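User: Hello! I'm new to structural biology and keep hearing that structure can be predicted from sequence alone. Could you demonstrate with Phytanoyl-CoA dioxygenase? Please show me the input and the output so I can see what each looks like.

Assistant: Of course. The first part below is the input, the amino acid sequence of Phytanoyl-CoA dioxygenase. The second part is the output, the predicted structure written as tokens.
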Amino acid sequence: MTTTSPTALDTPYDLAPDRIAAFERDGFVHLPGVFDPDVVRHFEPEITAKVIELNTMHLPMAERSTYDKAFLQVGNLWRHSDLVRELVYSRRLARIAADLLGVEGVRLYHDQALYKEPGGGITPWHADQYYWPLSTDRCGTIWLPLQDTPLELGPLSFAAGSHRFEFGRDLPISDESEAAMQVALAEQDLPVVNEPFAPGDASFHLGWTFHHAGPNVAADPRRVMTIIYIDADMVVAEPVNENQAGDLAASFPGLKPGDLAASPLNPELYRR
């Protein structure tokens, strides 16, 4: 295993003003060189080992739903590995989130490893915040691939400007959301941006930014670590669907609507 240092995880990233402006305009931004590739290589084996250990999806691909064909999804790895916790607690990443969200600080909502297996299908169009019982839109996701990610592996694609588009916010990730959003985004003439990711690149997108991923037609899995951040002063909202009710119980244990979103599972990761 390669080694890394706290400096790599905690020194500020040079977030240029044009990147912040692009994020505000588009609802997402692709950030080159967030980490040196050696840093990514340092964490990948441990994240992969935990995905293998904690994954509960074992059906053959042909027997899975569209959702389950899209990726293996394993959350809260930071609670199962001291090494992964170092990455999730990275002040470098948390400061990027705070700067892009325009807030004084951020806390952890949760992390997720998203591994698209060889032969894995599309990730249907959706917006993450459909699932989140949060009172504002000041929340978003760092999407950090753990290898070189050409288009064949199925990197994320984003509908630029869709964070201002309210149609589809009541749709869970599904065949229905894929079909409906294909039509709606085309009617709105929102550009779809689909780019490869080099090792160490990352993206950040808002909770209401619609995104999608193609199938993995390569021989290797697409290995990705994500960290979801919320405004450190976020308040829990009343759930508006069953998925949000489930997330309230799982991600904010002991909290109720109107509370500061600060359970023991939501440590503050950065404040100016």
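User: So the tokens describe the shape?

Assistant: Right, they're a compact way of writing down the 3D structure. Reading them back into a model, for example: Residues 37-54 form the longest helix (18 residues).
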